[in-house]
């Protein structure tokens, strides 16, 4: 929300995490077990009219990294990999989508610059921003 997102969609098998997610700005929640035959990416594309501008994978499974990529909007969607993949599994991403403008990047610690960003975050937390 601080960056201007109109929708923040949380995805988890545990429905109770929606209440926790709301405290961090989650506005919608998808439990993959309730999607029927559809993939999560298909459901997200339906509710966002084509995909999200940014998707974040936080678990560390290659299959979920690919699914996060599939949630991103064609031509400009960005997927950020935060989870650490421990099984040495390669990603299967169609390079055609990369050529059309979608991107995948990794990020440690949210891209924070400890010296300058942590004091700012601490102030926001203290002032409940």
From TrEMBL:
This is Alcohol dehydrogenase-like C-terminal domain-containing protein. Transmembrane segments: none annotated. It holds the Pfam family ADH_zinc_N. GO terms for biological process: formaldehyde catabolic process. GO terms for molecular function: S-(hydroxymethyl)glutathione dehydrogenase [NAD(P)+] activity; zinc ion binding. It comes from Gossypium davidsonii (Davidson's cotton). Homodimer. Residues 2-119 form the Alcohol dehydrogenase-like C-terminal domain. Its cofactor is Zn(2+). Keywords: Metal-binding, Zinc. InterPro entries: ADH-like_C (IPR013149), NAD(P)-bd_dom_sf (IPR036291). It comes from the Eukaryota. The keyword Zinc applies. GO terms for cellular component: cytosol. Gene3D superfamilies: Medium-chain alcohol dehydrogenases, catalytic domain, NAD(P)-binding Rossmann-like Domain.
